Amino acid sequence: MVNGAEVAADVEDRMLLVHFLRETAGLTATNIGCDTTSCGACTVLLDGESVKSCTVLAAQADGCQVTTVEGLAGAGGELHPMQRAFRAEHGLQCGFCTPGMVMAAVSLLQENPHPTEPEVRAGLEGNLCRCTGYHNIVRAVLAAAQEPTP
Amino acid sequence: MSILGTRVVRSEDPRLLTRGGVYTDDLRIPELDGAARITFVRSPIAHARITGIDTEAALASPGVVAVLAAADMDDLPPGGGRPATEPLLATDRVRYVGEAVAIVVTEQGYQGEDAAELVSVDYEPLPAVVDFDDALAGGTLLFDGTDSNVVRSGGDPAPADAFSGCEVVVEHTFPNQRVAPIPLEVRASAARWADGRLTLWTSTQNAQQARDAVAEAVGLDAASVRVIAPDVGGGFGAKIATERDTIVVAWAAKHLGRPVRWVETRNENLLGMVHGRAQRHAIRIGGTRDGRILAYHLDIIQDCGAYPRSGPFLPALTKLMAGGVYDLPYCGAAFRSVLTSTTPVGAYRGAGRPEATAAIERAVDLFAAEIGMDPAEVRRRNVVPPTAFPYTTPSGAVYDTGDYAAALDAVLAGAGYAGLRAEQARRRELSSQGLSREEGGGPVQLGIGLACYVEITAADYDGGETSRVVVDASGAATVYTGSSPHGQGHQTAFAMLVTDQLGIPMDKITVIHGDTDQVPKGVGTYGSRSLQLGGTAVQQAAIQVKDQARELAAAMIEASEADLELDTTRGIWQVRGDPDTALSWAAVAAEAGPGGLSAEADFRPASPTFPFGAHLAVVEVDTETGKATLIRHVTVDDAGKVLNPVLAEGQRHGGIAQGAAQALLEEVRYDAEGNPLTSTLADYAAITATELPSFELLAMETPTTVNALGAKGIGEAGTIGATPAVHNAVIDAVAHLGVRHIDMPATPQRVWAAINEAKGGQMGPAQMRPAQLRTAQMGRPG
Amino acid sequence: MIPAPFTYRRSGSVAEALDLVSEHGDEAKFLAGGHSLLPLMKLRLAMPSVLIDLGPVRELSYIRDEGAHIAIGALTRHHDLEHSGVLARSLPLLAHAAGQVGDPQVRHRGTIGGSLAHSDPASDLPATVLALDATLVARGPSGSREIAATGFFEGLFETVLEPDELLTEIRVPVPAADAAGWSFQKFTKRAIDWAIVGVAVQGTAVALVNMAGTPVRALGVERALAAGATPAEAAGHAAEGTTPGDDINASPAYREHLARVLVERALVEAQSTQA
């Protein structure tokens, strides 16, 4: 299940989850930024927890629930509080790291609903951004933490 | 009240946050249906002759459509439009690890990686040249038929008497190390040849320049080439030039008669995308014991990598800006640009100016340490006074406007400088008493670092920028601009300029960029030029549209233009005080005919602009381990009138992070054979959120008179100020232990070695001394 | 960027996993969380032709207080170790060390068994289980065996496990009351990096991260402590018997220096948590 919809396909054993999402499921928001599990641009939720989808085989995710940034907004298009906060705080510039960053942040708040600034920074240690210097990303996550959980 | 200068969140964001941007590798369009995938075969060796390429095994690999090398490129124009020195695919010689030698074309991406491994290239190794001094000595030449690896030089040595009036002279040599730009989106291109036209989608900072470069290289006229920049995931200067790999993709589409697409891996990116900085600086600074700097000379060696691209020209900008914010009776610089067996060097956020600032700000601190004066005071005594503008430097730069002392004073006040120095002194005192951590002592010391800077933006001002504004019969406005944003927020910024002039609401304004069919004329986004050049052009075009509309509206209402007003809060034309005459933009545009109202402006200012500022960094250094942590960073970055503080702050933040990264962490390393040691993101220490604090940005706006917006460029300023401030802070933290200098990046090992050395312990690789220069260059630890 | 081709097999139980591995022999590797193995395969530094996915093997994910020791299933994820109330009470060193591995995303997938079987001396958990004198339980076609942590790691990416053996459990003795003090010192340039040098202390047991081809106990330090040395004195022995590497982050001399500094800090901190 990806963003609540079943996606079924026969794929190569070695297909990475991130390629499954981008090529097979047609969800290109999740990006690839490195080849050493370093940058976090590929972060999605697997059964509700953040994972780097470049380091998960599609086969390992068989039968699981995957959530990408395309699945965050509400059914009527209402932005998720994290999406709202990233916009309000200018937490993105080129947008390439953003889908992974948002999903990592969503997972972070699920596990720690009221983080301190150092905890936010530590929680995003696996996500690189080159444009923002992280300053507004941190503000966005702290702002989202103020909102009631959807 | 005008929207200009107000905080406006970006219109780009809802799409990016919900559906994601559409970057080149995301394109799922009919034109690229069935596109074959290109995988490059790259040299694993830094310098070698190619004696053979065996493609037999690769051709038999599943899904392979073709394996192509230089020998197959017989359908290019003679000379290929490229400098003769750099082929598209290597011919007889490779000159850096990662250089492209062949391409494998496959039905699917995974197959490409499998097949590329099967291409067998015979290499006959040649000596690699990595060390600066080896390259300068020319024992091994990178190109036959040359007598030197030096490809460009400029400036002169200091005159013999330049320092003769100085009571104190300090000399030092240190690196401004090679770094990797690391945009999160790596290079990617896709191309299609159909109906006599080549369409190229590519991650570029300038579609029009890409079109011209590809057309020339492949042997087409510009009208036969369309370049589209989809969403671009960061550039930082490294996506300005249209490089050989992209041109190969374009050529392959035409050669094969089939659409093709390519996206590199991050490892390829760290080998194949241009690197930045890579200078060596020899500074000489002299003055009086009471703090007046009388003379400064900077000698630069620029490492260009294996092929001369824009690398050789960067030190000319360093030389131009060498004197920084200071009023110096003598200031001179000279440079030599030299080739080495490494990845080519190009523009990277600041492109030659961070190097200038880093050199002089380090020099000023060395001078301050030598005379025992507070580094803030030395700066205050030597900056160009605010009454001296426009100020012409010894190098011939004409600084437009500035108040350098005010910037310095603002960061000192904003940071609480006196309190910081007091805390530093307190910790030093406790530590010298040998108190333990629990007793209030301990190994963690405080360092405070300063940097004052001025930089040149829109250095290529006479290229100008073009923008067109159209208002159509629906009352919507479209901006066509040669600017090419890749995160800068131009859609929001330029829409603000249009709404300010025309009163058309933001959500009815679209900004089109990066498509050469829709925007045939343009220069692009780099060098912090876009708002001041592209934005001014947008404003000028909007004003022209307004003038056209006024004339038409007057005729429609049968009133005189002088009696008409445009109510910009409602976007309505009317006779002043007579709302019954109200005309909408839609009505006026419809009256103008099928094309609506349209105007194009090409803005070429008379000169570049010179933003300036001051940064103050506070670090904690654990003197037992050598680890430095940035705990505060306070800045003034004055780029004239700010159009949208949200965007300006974002640019400053990003620049500060990259600047701090160079001071503390990042370095591209090679071993003596030219093998890269930092070619993955596990090894290359790109800075993350955990190494940075939140930043403290102070506001200061000293408008320029060069353009009607009063705006200078902000994109690179943060990087320029941050690196020397953080670097100086780390050294300052351990200055009481006798440390005067530590080379960048000030890694824990380097800091520890410096402390040891100052204690008289074993010489560590903390900094370059002539005897150690070679060692450090050869990439040994430290 | 992507692994060489392989065959993926899935196992739902330990028994099934052992059947599969004996079917495929040494062409097969077990896939646990995949965050040590898959990165190597993506760089094509490892190219097994068969991967046996242990993901569905729920029976090996547990943390059980069995009185004198805590029994941890080999497929327990770092995240679960980090947040375990049982470990917080009885083995805070292990909980803390698990929370230092990689980043949050990595910790949602990586497992203790996978990390130990991978045997990277720069990883956090091998040295930790060494300091805790853990016993590793492995099961193969001929049954189970218990392996002391001190005899488990043989070298970089090498353990005493046979190709057809599966780590099933890590048994960690609950420290005695007078050895409850602990500390974990991980020295890095960036929070996300592997340790340049690390130290795990439990009581007077001291293990070092990244000071040799395997995790090692700092025996010189332990002997000094037994003889009554202070932390500062004992820490002076930290680098004895080590063979620290030379790489872009640190020279051997710097690593030895860090080992001494970090061991002293760890011993001081362990004393304070002992109280």
Written overview of the protein:
The complex is a heterotrimer of chains A (150), B (782) and C (275). Chain A has helices at 17-24, 81-88, 98-111, 117-123, 135-146; strands spanning 43-46, 49-52, 66-67. Chain A has 150 residues and is mainly α. Chain A folds into two domains: 17-71, Beta-grasp domain (Ubiquitin-like (UB roll)), CATH 3.10.20.30; 81-146, DNA polymerase, domain 1, CATH 1.10.150.120. Chain A has a three-stranded antiparallel β-sheet, with helices on one face. In chain A, helix 2 crosses helix 5 and helix 3 (98-111) crosses helix 5 (135-146). The longest helix of chain A is centred in the C-terminal third of the chain and has 14 residues, at 98-111. Chain A starts with 16 loop residues before the first helix and ends with a helix. The mean pLDDT of chain A is 97. Among the domains of chain B are: 13-127 and 187-262, Aldehyde Oxidoreductase, domain 3 (Alpha-Beta Complex), CATH 3.90.1170; 374-453 and 610-740, Aldehyde Oxidoreductase, domain 4, CATH 3.30.365.10; 461-603, 2-Layer Sandwich (Aldehyde Oxidoreductase, domain 4). Chain B is of the alpha+beta class. The model of chain B is unreliable at 767-782 (pLDDT under 50). In chain B, helix 5 links the parallel strand 10 (197-202) and strand 11 (225-228). In chain B, helix 8 (314-320) packs across helix 9 (353-371). Chain C has 275 residues and is α+β, with helices and mostly antiparallel strands. In chain C, 33% of the residues lie in helices and 23% in strands. Chain C has helices spanning 14-24, 37-42, 78-82, 85-90, 92-98, 104-109, 112-118, 124-131, 219-226, 231-235, 252-274; strands spanning 7-10, 28-31, 50-53, 63-65, 69-73, 135-140, 143-148, 153-155, 158-159, 166-173, 182-187, 197-202, 205-209, 216-217. In chain C, helix 5 packs antiparallel against helix 8 (124-131). The longest helix of chain C is centred in the last third of the chain and has 23 residues, at 252-274. At the A-B interface, helix 2, helix 3, helix 4 and helix 5 of A face helix 1 and helix 16 of B.
